[in-house]
Amino acid sequence: MTNHISTKWLGNMAFESTNPSGLNLLIDAGPENGGEGKGYRPKALMLSALAGCSGLDIASMIKKMKLEVDEFHMETIANLTDEDPKFYDKVTLEYHFHGSNLSEHKLQRAIDLSIEKYCGVMEMFRKFAELEIKPIFHHK
């Protein structure tokens, strides 16, 4: 299977990129790099892709396992190297679950399945970054 994305220069430092969902996204540099800051930054998008990919896996398993979770969010903290080409060499992914009846064991299983088996973006990140996974349970 092949993904094909078209990315068109809009002038200055802005680009518009298609997505298979049919929703296009804008990419732009910040003012410090000659852009207007009206779009997503490419490297930051990679972190959203990582969290989104794993998050979809976990949301699906929360549904399948009928787990009680009031709120679920992820924090992705990445270290960028100093030298060009700058890339993420260390990435911490925190999974925050909130609820009064959290099954820590099952949620941990969902995380493990996502990071070891299902999340393709995670597999790509493994090729260039050291990953730290932190489940955090907030019991109400």
Automatic annotation (TrEMBL):
Extract the Pfam families matched here.
OsmC
- InterPro entries, sorted: KH_dom-like_a/b (IPR015946), OsmC/Ohr_fam (IPR003718), OsmC/Ohrsf (IPR036102)
Gene3D superfamilies in alphabetical order: 3.30.300.20
Name-wise, this protein is: OsmC family protein
